[in-house]
């Protein structure tokens, strides 16, 4: 009975037009490995999905799927928009500002203010020591459902950071 429910649920997911193929595969995979009540645990995974958009270095708008509680850095690294090797730890003490992103104006108010440490690192990485109000560290932005649809831009590498 549990198997038939699982197959029924999987076929329903593929019919949802608003979900990307990646999101659908996440839901199918989570339901395949879940307990005897697949729809209950899959609903929990579906509730954690946060879909955002990133403007890459070529100016293309790309869909990024992350999970609530995950950092923006992790979501962008999973989609190969930020090099995961550049930021191995998601701790502010290990940050070199290579995970810097620019947040779209309408989303700035929905994020908590930058910490003193985050501001210090952003200023330190800026040649002019001027802080762009849209700049945030991806390792310090934690995804949550209210950030669904947020738009971020990946800035070009600073000339002094290019080998």
Structure in words:
This protein has a domain at 47-153: Ubiquitin-like (UB roll), CATH 3.10.20. By secondary structure, it is α+β, with helices and mostly antiparallel strands. The protein is 35% helix and 15% strand. It starts with a helix and ends in a 10-residue tail after the last strand. The protein contains 6 helices and 5 strands. A 5-stranded mixed sheet has the order 2-1-5-3-4. Keywords: 2Fe-2S, Iron, Iron-sulfur, Metal-binding. InterPro entries: 2Fe-2S_ferredoxin-like_sf (IPR036010), Adrenodoxin-like (IPR001055), Beta-grasp_dom_sf (IPR012675). This is Ferredoxin. One of its GO terms (molecular function) is electron transfer activity.
Calculate the mean pLDDT score and round it.
76
The CATH architecture of the domain at 47-153 is Roll
* Superfamily (CATH H level) name of the domain at 47-153: Beta-grasp domain
Pattern of helices and strands: HHHEEHEHHEE
Percent strand equals 5-15%
In the sheet with the most strands, the strands line up as 2-1-5-3-4
Text of the CATH class of the domain at 47-153: Alpha Beta
What is the tally of helical segments?
6
Task: Please tell me what the overall shape is.
Answer: globular
Largest sheet: 5 strands, mixed
- β-strand number: 5
Radius of gyration: 18 Å
> What distance separates the N and C termini?
59 Å
Kindly identify the CATH topology of the domain at 47-153: Ubiquitin-like (UB roll)
The proportion of residues forming helix, as a percent range, comes to 25-40%
Low-pLDDT ranges: 30-36
Structural class: alpha+beta
